[in-house]
Structures are given as C-alpha cells and as structure tokens.
Amino acid sequence: GIVLDKFHRFKETTLAVYAFSLIGMIAFTFTLDKGIAVVYVTSALLGFFMTGLLPVGFELAAELTYPEPEGTAAGLLNAACQIFGIAFTSLYSLLLKELGDIWANVIMCAMLILGTIFTACIQSDLKRQAAQKS
User: Fold this and answer.
1) Among the four residues 4, 18, 46, 112, which has the most C-beta atoms within 10 Å?
2) Long-range CB pairs of 112-119, under 8 A, 24+ apart, other chains included
3) What is the spatial distance between Cα 95 and Cα 93, in angstroms, rounded to a whole number?
4) pLDDT (tens digit, 9 = 90+) per residue, 36-94?
5) How far is it, in rounded angstroms, from Cα 122 to Cα 36?
6) Phi, psi at residue 35, to the nearest 5°?
7) What is the torsional sign of CA 105, 106, 111, 116?
C-alpha cells in the first residue's frame, strides 16, 4: 500500500508481487524434503506474497476499470478468485494423487508463470490517476 501510494506504479507493483509469489512457490516446491523449519519459512514467504497480491490486484483493477465503481471490479475479482480457487484446488488434488507433490507444485508454478505473463500483457492505463490529476 505504501509503495502504491508513493509511486503509483500499480502494474509494476503487481508484477513484482506476482514474481515474488512465483519465487516463493518455487522455493516451497524444492524445499519440501529439507525439514519442517525450512518448509515453515518458505510457506510463510509464499503466503506473504500471495496474500499481498490480492489488494494490489484490486487496486490495479480499480485503476483500469475507472469510472466503474471499485466495488464492481472487486466483486468480479472475488468471484473469479473463488472460481479459480475451486478449479485449482480440484486440479491440485488430482495432480497430487496422480503425479506426487513435486510435479503438482511444478504445475502450479507454471500457472503462476502464465499469470505473470498475462499480467505483463495488461496495458497500464491508469484512468483513476488521470482523473484525479485533471
């Protein structure tokens, strides 16, 4: 929030948090056999960035969809989060059963890479910031 308020770099901040989430997921994937303390640290790192991705993404959505109300963008994002959460949980359960934990996590890393690429392709048209300046 402080970075967004100070620099108004919504897309770049979203990409950075997405990339750190990916790094956290990769670290988590390849440290599962390193002991419980390491797993706790890497899962905390992963959770920190994945949880932080939500409000940053909401702010980016509000910027891109202005003059639509922020609640509309947030509601649609929450609905999408629920749908993808159910789908990815089901997919992960199937992958975990069929392929094991490493491959299931690697596939989830691939999904994060895909999300990072999609986010990078978004045009950074900050309509709300432009309206506040004028």
Assistant:
1) 18
2) 112/18, 112/21, 112/22, 112/25, 113/22, 115/18, 116/15, 116/18, 116/19, 116/22, 119/11, 119/14, 119/15, 119/18
3) 6
4) 999 999 999 999 998 888 888 888 888 888 888 888 888 998 999 899 999 999 999 99
5) 38
6) 110, 155
7) positive
DSSP string, the chain: -HHHHHH--HHHHHHHHHHHHHHHHHHHHHTTTS-HHHHHHHHHHHHHHHHHHHHHHHHHHHHHHTTS-HHHHHHHHHHHHHHHHHHHHHHHHHHHHHH-HHHHHHHHHHHHHHHHHHHHTS----HHHHHHH-
**Residue 13: alpha-carbon gap to chain centroid:** 11
Q: What is the pLDDT of residue 132?
A: 77
